[in-house]
Specification:
Its EC number is 2.7.13.3. One of its GO terms (molecular function) is ATP binding. Keywords: ATP-binding, Kinase, Nucleotide-binding, Phosphoprotein, Transferase, Two-component regulatory system. This is histidine kinase. By secondary structure, the protein is of the alpha+beta class. The protein folds into 2 domains: 170 residues, Beta-Lactamase; 151 residues, 2-Layer Sandwich (Heat Shock Protein 90), CATH 3.30.565.10. Helices cover 45% and strands 21% of the residues. The strands form 4 sheets. It has a 6-stranded antiparallel beta sheet with strand order 5-4-3-8-7-6. It has a 5-stranded mixed beta sheet with strand order 10-12-13-15-14, covered by helices on one side. It has a two-stranded antiparallel sheet with strand order 1-2. The longest helix has 67 residues. The N and C termini lie far apart (76 Å).
Length: 409
């Protein structure tokens, strides 16, 4: 008998040093209280003094966990020469071995194993993992004869062996889930860092650049410089929209969803008009008409609704017919606030429409345009945050996105 168990004390806990290559297998059994209970039950039900789960391979026999009241002397990690055990034969033949009394057993009365280890009664039942692979054995010995030929005893051993196989499966799946959770935690940490980069290292410089370009546009410039400033403002606007959309998407994926701070406002038209004016300024070649008829207070988050309109307008500019005007309409109708953006151009296909509001959706004609495909997704999240929805209508003549929400909570 050889031993590789070291129960040294470290930080007040016993440290188990296990044979190399078998650490995971042994720990799965050793750390299971279910297995401990099953082994105790085996001993109580049969009167046998030693019961164990052994990891058995072609060349190794290693104790995973044992209950020992006869001083057999094996603990977790301890080994026997595999050729000296009957478990070796169980593995090779994939069969059970049950001996009630060695001297009276015609097959094993002269076998070397009972003589070497001094037992008279013996049980060894194969244990298989979830994939059906042989793992080891549920075995028990005693120096006295025991009544093991009762069919109920055999059924108990077989059932316990299956349960131990289930323990192996469940334990491994739990470890896999924990590993996946650890990976998700790492990914979440990276997302937070990503949000920080967007929020400071990218958004702030772009904001400063846009402010500088606005000041520059107010100065007298020649025709070439005016066009250059316009193109720069357009690029800065797209960068800003892209950063805000990615930032919102990252925040929503971190668990809190799209945040809105709603309050009653009676000047929502000013927010929307500002968005329209900005789009007109950076795309002067496009005609954007606005008809805003908002009466009374609207319970909303004005910056978020401004972002929703900006995203819908960006979509119209990108995918609409440049020769046809874009129409923006906003009004209060009954108990609803309605905002619509309409443009001409090719209709949205059925396959593209089914994915319009998914993150990173850029199908069909959209795939040839700039952007990550987050604008409409963010708009839909803002709509949901206001208890509303966005409906899409598209035919050969016009495409419209219509946002509806209740005026009050």
């Amino acid at each position: 008998m050889s031993s590789s168990t070291d129960l040294g004390e470290e930080n007040g806990r016993a440290e188990l040093v296990l044979p190399l290559g078998f650490e995971r297998d042994i720990k799965q059994i050793y750390e299971s209280e279910t297995v401990a209970t099953l082994l105790e039950t085996v001993c109580l039900a049969t009167g046998m003094g030693f019961a164990a789960v052994a990891r058995v391979t072609e060349t190794r026999w290693i104790t995973c966990r044992a209950v020992d009241s006869i001083g057999f002397g094996l603990g977790p990690g301890d080994e026997l020469a595999v050729e000296s055990t009957l478990c070796h034969e169980v593995r090779a033949a994939e069969r059970e071995i049950i001996i009630s009394d060695v001297p009276n057993d015609p097959l094993y009365c002269d076998h070397h194993t009972p003589k070497q280890y001094g037992f008279r009664s013996y049980v060894s039942i194969p244990i298989h993992d979830a994939a059906g692979q042989f793992f080891g054995t549920l075995c028990a010995i005693d120096p006295h004869p025991r009544a093991l030929d009762d069919p109920r005893v055999l059924r108990m051993f077989r059932h316990f062996a299956r349960m131990i196989g289930d323990v192996l499966d469940v334990t491994q799946r739990l470890k896999d889930v924990q590993a996946q959770l650890d990976r998700e935690i790492d990914i979440g940490r990276l997302r937070e860092e990503f949000v920080a980069v967007l929020g400071h290292d990218l958004r702030n410089p772009v904001g400063a650049m846009r402010a500088g370009l606005r000041m520059l546009a107010k100065r007298p410039l020649d025709e070439r410089s005016t066009e250059l400033v316009r193109l720069m403002r357009l690029s800065a606007h797209r960068m800003s929209d892209l950063i805000e959309n990615i930032l919102d998407h990252a925040r929503s994926r971190l668990g809190d969803g799209m945040t809105t701070r709603r309050e009653p406002v009676d000047n929502l038209d000013e927010t929307l008009q500002h968005v329209v004016a900005e789009v007109r300024a950076i795309t002067p070649e496009r005609q954007v008409n606005a008809d805003l008829r908002i009466s009374g207070a609207v319970l909303c988050d004005p910056p978020r609704l401004g972002q929703l309109l900006s995203n819908l307008l960006s979509n119209a500019v990108s995918h609409g017919d440049p020769e046809q005007p874009i129409h923006v309409r906003a009004e209060t109708v009954g108990e609803e606030f309605v905002l619509q953006v309409e443009n001409g151009g090719a209709p949205i296909t059925a396959s593209a429409r089914s994915r319009l509001f998914e993150p990173f959706a850029r199908g069909d004609a959209m795939s040839s345009t700039n952007g990550l495909g987050l604008g409409l997704y963010i708009a839909s999240q803002i709509a949901q945050g206001h208890g509303g929805r966005i409906d899409v209508q598209s035919d050969e003549d016009r495409t419209s996105f219509t946002f509806r929400m209740p005026l009050t909570a």
